[in-house]
Amino acid sequence: MKQYDMWIGGQWVEASSGESFESFDPYTGKPWALIPRGTAEDVDRAVRAAAEAFQGPWSRLTASARGELLLRLGELLVQHQDTLAETEVRDNGKLIAEMKAQMRYLPKWYTYFGGLADKIEGSVMPIDKPGLFNYTRHEPVGVVAAITPWNSPLMLLAYKIAPALAAGNCVVIKPSEYTSASTLEFAKVLELAGFPAGVVNVVTGLGAEAGAALTAHPLVDKVSFTGSDLNGQKVYEDSARTLKRVSLELGGKSPNIVFADAVLEDAVKGVVSGVFAASGQSCLAGSRLLVEASMHDRLVDALVAFMKQVRLGDPSDAATQIGPIATPPQHRKILDYIDIARAEGATCVLGGKVPEAPQCTGGQFVEPTIFTGVTNRMRIAREEVFGPVLTVIPFETEEEAVEIANDTPYGLAAGVWTQNMARAIRMVERIRAGTVWVNTYRANSFMSPFGGYKRSGLGRENGIASMREFMELKTVFISTADGVANPFILR
User: Fold this and answer.
1) Any stretches that span the bilayer, and where are they (predicted)?
2) What pTM was computed for the model?
């Protein structure tokens, strides 16, 4: 098995305990790598290395120089994209076709934010008080803890550290214990880019050990977390004890709304993309299909026919369309929710079990599953399954569609399928979600803010807006008057 070390203070190091844990290939079910089991001691070392770098060489670099390092990182990622893609496929079971596309796109986060590094400007205010010069400046928060999930480790890491570094912060990364290998491979590219020691650190380990120590560390100034809403709530609570800044990108139960005037073929592809791509392991999955009643049967029949032709199997095979579930606990959770849906009275019209195909033997697979006869009060419609499970809910009117769409504790994303642009605009205005797609689904960009309403999170990632999440705003007053006014009166 491949043996990895952690990246702390510009050095490759073992866990202080000397312990490691196995990382399993979701397709074979067999261990393939050993990951250091970091402890609170390792976290402390990493955070202190980041704090020292923040006070030292990193703070002395100009914004343009920081940007040049990010641009260099982007160039190197292009050269190492195949290794990173192959590592993620082996570590979390994502399709090689998707991972190669992601890794081709990934460098753009670092080149975009590298270009933004010296473009963040303060303002001069025409203050209403004579004899005062008033302006603002944006300064880095300090040490940022970046905690990433197992479903798209490197892409979601870029959402965090590209703007954090461009803003002048130092970072300690804690990847999921299920998918740490690609982040450690990424750290090798970081080393080649020439960032000063301690600017970026990677500590691996269990969430209850290394993760908890990181969010509680007094020298961490901000936590940026992606994961489930329950884990996000715990991170929020832990961070509040020391009043850390927090960004949370959490779960979703996103509605994908199809009106009767939608182009059927396009809607089918959009629904498939929304919930079955990445085996449904996506926070923005359109797992609630809301379909106008007059189109319900046609759309369901078309979806079932489409998905019966889909190929499951080896994610490293470019012809595979649906791969395994990334972790054993998640595999069990999805199957439990399928049982819950049946117990609630939903009708399974496709899938609903572990596939028996020989190419799926030994892996953590779940058949693409579609339930009809679902109401929005059922658990299967309200709770995040995070797997290839679609619930179909009919509606009669636009008003009812909006009501069902918003009747959820989440608000990460939504889709709308219609040829009526007036209706599309009305739906965009009324749906309470951070991203709304019209006649498409699952599109993203490093330029476009991403985040959620309600239990789907706090703050925004990507785009210029994300830079503000990693900066403090300082106001400065400079007196230009001769002498000081009465000290007992507010100036």
Assistant:
1) none
2) 0.96
